[in-house]
Write a structure and sequence with these properties.
This protein is mostly helical. It is about 50% helix and about 0% strand.
Length: about 100
């Protein structure tokens, strides 16, 4: 992993200083954003720079939208019962706060 991110990824980091992001220090944040919002080019870059284990770690330990979590769990053949965003308690709590 190199330190700098390619410029085409900047659109996924609208709320942070893009030039300050570093692949080593911010790997989980970067991967989470790409899994949630990435297009084909971003996904291809992700697959070259991160392992399947890195993706599994994100899905098991961090929350992303249930739709994205389900998609990536299917793509990477990860047991959906392990995926944090697909666990029943998370989904119930999510709809209690915002029932739409």
């Amino acid at each position: 992993m190199k330190g700098e991110l390619p410029q085409f990824l900047e659109k996924y980091f609208w709320d942070v200083e893009f030039k300050e992001l570093n692949m080593k220090r911010s790997a989980r944040f970067i991967l989470k954003r790409i899994l949630e919002y990435g297009d084909e080019k971003a996904i291809a870059w992700m697959r070259k720079n991160f392992t399947e284990k890195d993706v599994e770690d994100i899905l098991i330990n961090l929350r992303i939208s249930p739709k994205s979590a389900n998609f990536w769990a299917t793509i990477f053949d990860i047991d959906k019962r392990k995926v944090l965003s697909l666990q029943k308690s998370y989904l119930e709590r999510r709809y209690r706060v915002w029932p739409y």
